[in-house]
Amino acid sequence: MAVSLFYFFVFPGLLxxxxxxxxxxxxDRKITAxxxxxxxxxLLQPFYxxxxxxxxxxxxxxxxxxxxxxLLAPIFAVIGATLASVFILLPLFSIxxxxxxxxxxxxxxxxxxxxxxxxxxxxxxxxxxxxxGSREMKLILGYEMTFILVIAGIIMKCEQHxxxxxxxxxxxxxxxxxxxxxxxxxxxxxxxxxxxxxxLVPFDMPEAETEITxxxxxxxxxxxxxxxxxxxxxxxxxxxxxxxxxxxxxxxLHGINILWAILKxxxxxxxxxxxxxxxxxxxxxQAISFFMIWMNLIAVIALVLIAFGL
Length: 310
What we know:
Radius of gyration: 19 Å
Oligomer: single chain
Helix content: over 70%
């Protein structure tokens, strides 16, 4: 029991994943600033933002709606993100437990933050939040089907094995899956799915500051909004880490390979950052069409190539 609590709250769970995610958030903001010819924030700015919201800013409850669901939604988001981080990072750090990182379990856990945001938005009673929640629901319908096709491709490449331990081991004993044509296609699709899961431009329609003024988060402030920040920090780390595990042979934490593991995660985050800084926000209809038609088509082509051993 004590070991399980340590995994959840300390390493590789809440404390570790949130800390690394905060540093990745700084990296993302720093690269964004450089692209825009700005200096960018200091290294600890994400921590300042979080603790200011948690300890200084007042949590204001909306007059209409359900205050209980409104406050519980961010907590559910953090719990879902933390559980996903434990199940993704345990295999990556070669920590042997009874759970071996079943991809389908991880897939469902990764949907908890998004559904939590929707619940919180609808519980706020704000019409702009409801618009944001509606957009989030439609976006989920677009990218989740595509993401499950990516997972299906990984399972096919690993001879029907579902667990991350075996997937990582198979790549380390042979060739990383991204070293094949089908692997490159799956990587491209996975990057865009993660872009949508993180609600980054061009798929930030649920928040859309210039249209619906933060949308699903419009009523959040103080400690409640700090929990949303925390969940986003965790997701910014574990989603790139999942791509590294599924397609880039995971982590090899021996000698110089530690640096290579860090660079792989940074490389994925860099790709996400460059995409969001070089593309405008699309309409929700365009986003759904993009995933349901083009990304699904690429994923299906990858599945066919896998069937032919490519």
